[in-house]
């Protein structure tokens, strides 16, 4: 028996990864060029990537940062969140959107989510506002646009967590991230665009850009020498290597987004017949999702973790519980006294959610294999 990789296997029996970035010669060339230039950081690719990203979205300004988390942290500081403040946000998100409030010794105040879009419910958010609320932090979860126009009516500063939402569009045709509020994108390897690790904050106010550019670089004012720092800052810089990768990825973004939408449409067809399975909300009311993950909710009466194990062990299909409710994580229970039952919609969705394999180059055959395996595991073979 050969120990090497099987080259004769039909494509539809190869292992299916959960996620996989699209990287090619353009990315290789871009990174090698930076290596040869000798300027690996604080070089020309940073503003070039920022400008190209802002142009692509129609946002006035953009600041490149080392991660989505770093961007959210700096954006919250820019709108003035500090000690003892409250930030109203979603418990159905990646933990970073709540953690960044705690970084500034503010309290993340959760409100329940809409059962269809899975985004922060504007009515629940309004009810959670107190006289200590200094910002609202909606999350465009799984790339579906949050109802920012309604949050704007609260009259509070908004920081948008758009880490999962590159390519999403609001009903008025404005790209998510281009409404003027600081909006934060993440570029981890499973995202619509990747720089390995990284992020961008977009914003309308040039004063926010100036502050974020300074705070990502140890608090250095733009026109000062190396050793003069006029405010507290961090090292949240994104390297030129990463920005070169980001520029190359931007060139192929339309194609990657279209491929993600194609894969999602195929999943929609392949899974439509499974009784009780919750599927991602279709675009409605002029909203356009920027496809990031394909998350389903297992039918009631099935254990999500049992389904995950059976997919893996019986069919070799990876999947992931995505996302767990933040308020029920042990740190949040212990620090803020949260308990089950506080946000019933979020808790129900989180307990049943499963992210299936999803990436731009996924073939129809691979989607169909996942769908057939899921139907079998759920006892619904057609
Ligand atoms: C909703 C959301 N917020 C924040 C983040 C944090 O981004 P990063 O991992 O780049 O720090 C992520 C990324 O995984 C995310 O999905």
What does this entry look like structurally?
This protein has 382 residues and is an alpha/beta fold. The protein contains 13 helices and 10 strands. The protein has helices spanning 25-37, 45-57, 68-78, 96-103, 122-128, 148-152, 206-215, 240-251, 253-271, 304-315, 330-336, 344-352, 364-377, and strands at residues 61-65, 86-89, 107-110, 133-137, 160-161, 183-186, 199-203, 294-297, 320-321, 353-356. Strands 1-7-6-5 form a 4-stranded mixed beta sheet, sandwiched between helices. A 3-stranded parallel beta sheet has the order 3-2-4, covered by helices on one side. Helix 1 (25-37) runs antiparallel to helix 8 (240-251) and helix 3 (68-78) packs across helix 4. The two termini are 36 Å apart. Residues 1-10 have low confidence and may be disordered. It binds pyridoxal-5'-phosphate (PLP).
- Our count of helices gives 13
Approximate shape: globular
β-sheet strand percentage? 5-15%
Order the strands across the largest sheet as they lie in space. Answer: 1-7-6-5
- Taking all Cα atoms into account, the compactness measure Rg is 21 Å
Instruction: Outline the biggest β-sheet.
Output: 4 strands, mixed
Helix fraction by DSSP (H/I, runs of at least 4): 25-40%
What low-confidence regions span 5 or more consecutive residues with pLDDT below 50?
1-10
> Could you tell me which ligands this complex binds, including any ions or cofactors?
pyridoxal-5'-phosphate
Mean pLDDT: 95
Structural class label: alpha/beta
Succession of helices and strands: HHEHEHEHEHEEEHHHEHEHHEH
Write down how many β-strands occur, each being a DSSP E stretch of 2 or more residues.
Answer: 10
Rounded to the nearest angstrom, the distance between the terminal CA atoms is: 36 Å
């Amino acid at each position: 028996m050969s120990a090497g990789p099987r080259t004769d296997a039909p494509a539809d029996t190869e292992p299916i990864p959960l996620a996989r970035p699209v990287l090619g010669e353009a990315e290789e060339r871009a990174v090698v060029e930076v290596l040869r230039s000798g300027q690996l950081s604080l070089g020309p690719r940073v503003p070039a990537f920022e400008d190209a990203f802002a142009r692509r979205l129609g946002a006035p300004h953009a600041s490149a940062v080392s991660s989505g988390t770093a961007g959210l942290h700096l954006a919250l500081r820019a709108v003035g969140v500090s000690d003892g403040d409250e930030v109203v946000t979603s418990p159905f998100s990646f933990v970073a959107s709540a953690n960044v409030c705690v970084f500034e010794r503010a309290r993340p105040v959760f409100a329940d989510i809409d059962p269809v879009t899975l985004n922060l419910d504007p009515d629940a958010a309004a009810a959670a506002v107190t006289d200590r609320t200094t910002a609202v932090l909606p999350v465009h979860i799984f790339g579906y646009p949050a109802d920012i126009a309604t949050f704007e009516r609260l009259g509070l500063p908004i920081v948008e967590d758009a880490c999962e939402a590159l390519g999403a569009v609001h009903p008025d045709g404005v790209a998510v991230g281009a409404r003027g509020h600081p909006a934060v994108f993440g570029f981890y390897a499973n995202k619509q665009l990747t720089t390995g690790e990284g992020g961008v904050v977009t914003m309308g106010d040039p004063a926010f850009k100036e502050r974020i550019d300074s705070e990502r670089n140890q608090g250095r004012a733009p026109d000062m020498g190396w050793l003069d720092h006029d405010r507290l800052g961090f090292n949240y810089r994104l390297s030129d290597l990463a920005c070169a990768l980001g520029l190359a990825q931007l060139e192929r973004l339309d194609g990657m987004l279209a491929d993600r939408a194609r894969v999602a449409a195929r999943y929609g067809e392949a899974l439509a017949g499974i009784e009780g399975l919750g599927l991602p909300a279709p675009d409605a009311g002029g909203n356009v999702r920027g496809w990031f993950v394909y998350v389903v909710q297992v039918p009631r009466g099935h254990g999500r973790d049992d389904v995950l194990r059976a997919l893996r062990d019986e069919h070799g299909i990876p999947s992931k519980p995505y996302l767990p409710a933040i308020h029920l994580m042990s740190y949040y229970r212990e620090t803020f006294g949260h308990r089950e039952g506080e946000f019933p919609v979020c808790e129900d969705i989180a307990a049943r959610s499963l992210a299936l394999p999803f990436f731009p180059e996924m073939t129809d055959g691979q989607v169909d294999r996942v769908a057939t395996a899921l139907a079998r595991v759920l006892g619904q073979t057609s």
